[in-house]
Design goal:
Elements lengths: L1 H13 L7 H4 L2 E2 L8 E12 L5 E11 L4 E2 L1 H12 L2 E2 L1 H16 L3 E10 H4 L10 E8 L4 H10 L2
Parallel strand pairs: 2-5
Antiparallel strand pairs: 1-4, 2-3, 3-6, 6-7
Amino acid sequence: METPHRILRSWQKLYGGYKMKPQDVLKTFTEGSCEEMVVLKDIEFYSTCEHHLQPFFGTISIGYLPEGRVLGISKLARLVEVFARRLQIQEKLVAEIADSLMETLQPHGVMVVCKAKHMCISSRGIEKHNAVMVTSAIRGAFKKMEVRNEFLEMIK
């Protein structure tokens, strides 16, 4: 009798992102605002592939160029959880993070880079255990090569 409840609790954690909204976790501040790039790198995440219902996991790095407002640093990690805790594909995950930051924070630009291992490629099909997928979402000022390169250097 306990097993079904345990499974339900685990699913509520795994897919809890559907109950969360980006605007609920993205509290912004005007005090302490800066004009320089803000980066949080190597945010660990866990998600589930919507195509195969297999886990994928890795790290996400986020950079933004503020325009008058900044976020509390934990808010970036919480934003990752909002979208990672849903059935996902990696390409959509980075886009949703970048788009919600652009909409809520209205910075000069945002860049999100995700590196992840997918169980659907390592446990079935081609069975490549060391393959790492890398995706990015680039918005605003990060489309300029010098801004993008600064971010990429910071997350090395």
